[in-house]
Fold this sequence. Notes:
Layout: E1 3-7, H1 15-22, E2 28-31, E3 40-44, E4 47-51, E5 64-67, E6 72-73, H2 75-87, E7 96-99, E8 103-104, H3 107-119, H4 132-140, H5 153-171, H6 178-192, E9 196-197, H7 199-208, E10 213-216, H8 241-245, E11 256-262, E12 265-267, H9 280-289, E13 301-303, E14 305-306, H10 307-317, E15 321-325, E16 335-344, E17 347-349, H11 356-360, E18 363-370, H12 387-400, E19 404-408, E20 416-418, H13 421-428
Parallel strand pairs: 1-10, 1-11, 2-5, 2-10, 5-7, 6-8, 7-9, 11-15, 14-16, 15-19
Antiparallel strand pairs: 3-4, 12-13, 16-17, 16-18, 19-20
The structure holds guanosine-5'-diphosphate.
Amino acid sequence: MNIAVVGAQWGDEGKGKIVDLVAPRFSVVARYQGGHNAGHTVHVGGRRFVLRLIPSGILHPGVTCIIGNGLVVDLKALFEEVDELAVAGITVDGRLLVSDRAHLILPYHRDIDRLSEAGLGARKIGTTSRGIGPAYEDKAGRRGLRVCDLTDASTLEEQIRDGVERRNRLAGDDTLDWRDVLQQTSILAERLRPWIGDVSVALARAMAGGRAILFEGAQGTMLDLDHGTYPYVTSSSATVGGACTGLGVGPRSVHAVLGIAKAYTTRVGEGPFPTELLGPAGDALRAKGNEFGAVTGRPRRCGWFDAVQVRHSVRVNGLDALVVTKMDVLDGLDGVPIGVGYRCGADTLTEFPASLRKLQQCTPVFETMPGWHAPTAGVRSAAALPAGAQAYLRRLEELTGVPVLLVSTGAAREDTVVRNEPLASTWFGGGLS
Ligand code: GDP
């Protein structure tokens, strides 16, 4: 079976751990959108890996990893990651394929990102300033540079000159020289050459040969350009639709969709967050959950699980099941609130509104479940979960309308509970825990 894994909240849900856990059941792990702003943290054998561009499947020797056309690739960042993996004894040779249709992030994109964000003042989006937004803007503006252009010297020079000129006009200086950018890019292009290929063709062949594909989404549904809290979103399709456009596969290639959600909610950067906890309660959740960005180190905003928001994710992705991560972070609380609606004047909204102005006029409606005092931390079997935690998970299932397949009770691969064994067997062949 081919399964897509998507973030069901605002990203950082722990997708990296789950992809790493199930990856050995697949021949190919294919990423379909985003750039090196997506930091997946994986803890294996006491080592901590932060993967930004390369799919988490790379940690398993038999798995081929794909960087789809839907990504924007910063070659410098890609090779830094490849080199870090090499130090840890992991080689990507023969196991990494980069789409010839993927767009490139160049040094001028990074500068444009920083300059544009600075110009927005109070309306800033809170981007990671890695050039991802401007590279996607160039893609939509039909002036982007793709991986396949790296082998065409005249196109490369012309586009880099144009890009650097745009940057220099915006910056009001000429500190970036197109010749330097061209030279650096040409060196990196040479190194990339053996890994470039047609991802759509490679995936079609893999599927024809009966090989199972894991489609890996980055960020989360609420950061999706169309279905997220626009304009406080990323520039790509983080929802499951992005798997088709970002890899060149048809919708029937995705046999099931798994959403990853934390047992509570976090978000990084600006934008609405209905169930956010401000003050000491939010600080406590942040400290307990170690909620600081894997790549940026930025503190994440924290709040309670929002069933309205996750139901939105269930619908726009057609989620078949959820994985609930970081259950252990809620251990020891007297009560655990869940957001079940938004009160807006005389109305209670049960669907996530498009208009952020409308959302700002709403206050969340909470239902509080009893807490549990026996820890879930490190629990590895469903029967060993405290009764309170089981009741909480059942309530999440009722409110979201989908089963909880797995529960994560710690950062390590082994700290995982299979809650729905029949589904886990069908999707992954069982024996996950
Ligand atoms: P991703 O981008 O969705 O993979 O998420 P991140 O890697 O940014 O953030 C997830 C963080 O939580 C990482 O540091 C993980 O090691 C950690 N993590 C994942 N699952 C659990 C869990 O169940 N409990 C705890 N305490 N930490 C977890």
